[in-house]
Design goal:
Number of helices: 4
Strand content: under 5%
Largest sheet: none
Helix content: over 70%
Shape: elongated
Distance between the termini: 33 Å
Number of strands: 0
Radius of gyration: 18 Å
Amino acid sequence: MAAMLTLSEGLRNQQFWRLLLMDFCSIFTFMYMTSTYKVMALQLNPDMDDRFITTVGAIGSIFNGCSRLFAGYLMDRFPFKKIYFCLLST
């Protein structure tokens, strides 16, 4: 088990900052897309039905949840760097 770090030690740790950057790069784009998908869809096609856009967003959220379970399974079976690279490259 890894040694516990104090807050000041953690903030000086290079691994912490790498992990924070990795999280920012992988999570920020998805959070942005989930908050603006309706606006983007309406800009592409102003005549698009709101119910259709909402249904597509809901289905996308379901697939997002299922993909997280699958990614967790892969993380348990394969090295972290290979899986993370595949997730970021798609």
